[in-house]
Write a structure and sequence with these properties.
The protein has a single domain (3-201), classed as Fumarylacetoacetate hydrolase, domain 2. Helix content is 15%, strand content 34%. The chain has four helices and 15 strands. The strands form three sheets. Strands 1, 2, 3, 5, 6, 8, 9 and 12 form an eight-stranded mixed sheet that branches. The protein has a four-stranded antiparallel sheet with strand order 11-10-14-15, with no helix packed on it. The radius of gyration is 16 Å and the shape is globular. Bound molecules: magnesium ion (MG).
């Protein structure tokens, strides 16, 4: 399986990192070794001194497809969850300034924490769903899927023009504003609407 992630998909987040609002989706990949599941602890790697959390809604692809139209994109994911796109912001800033790829900042081991997945039909309105992150009981990110620049369907249509989507692939759909650093000892908890899907420690 592969993990596809969308950057700068919420205007307020693009702005907080002084990035332009993109005209096309910005995408990058994480390998399967990036997965961190079952609310296992995240260990801060020694190569970065500025690991950031980015809470995102994650789609789980349920069948193979290429050149998927927006109209049929809803048939390609039945379950959604939450994930943290852990980012070595110091490495990313250096690579961005040199025009280099982001993999070392984004694709390292356990950089893709994911929750259990729930049927999208359980949500009253997937396209207007709240999701929020608390750290040590304090709300840090409070987003809503209605503020996405590119919808789930637009993302699937765009990505599948270039890369075949396969059953089990995950798509991280971008983070709202409020990103920041994690520290050893932090507890991260996240909710999609009223369902708590993430609860794990930083070590
Ligand atoms: Mg992200």
């Amino acid at each position: 399986m592969k993990i596809i992630a969308i950057g700068r998909n919420y205007a307020a987040h693009a702005k907080e990192l002084n990035n332009p609002v993109p005209e096309k989706p910005v995408i990058f990949l994480k390998p399967d070794t990036a997965l961190l599941k079952d609310n296992k602890a995240f260990y801060i790697p020694d190569f970065s001194s500025d690991i950031h959390y980015e809470l995102e809604v994650v789609l789980k692809i349920c069948k193979e497809g290429k050149h998927i139209s927006e109209k049929f994109a809803p048939k390609y994911y039945e379950e959604v969850g939450l994930g943290i796109d852990f980012t070595a912001r110091d490495i990313q800033a250096e690579h961005k300034s040199k025009g280099l790829p982001w993999e070392l900042a984004k694709a390292f081991d356990h950089s893709a924490a994911v929750s259990n997945f729930i049927p999208k039909a359980e949500l009253q309105d997937l396209y207007s769903s709240n999701f929020k992150l608390q750290i040590n009981g304090e709300t840090r990110q409070d987003g809503n899927t209605r503020n996405m620049l590119f919808s789930f369907e637009q993302i699937i249509a765009f990505v599948s023009k270039y890369i075949t989507l396969k059953k089990g692939d995950l798509i991280f759909t971008g983070t709202p504003e409020g990103v920041g650093q994690v520290k050893a000892g932090d507890k991260l908890e996240a909710w999609l609407e009223d369902q708590q899907l993430l609860s794990f420690d930083i070590k």
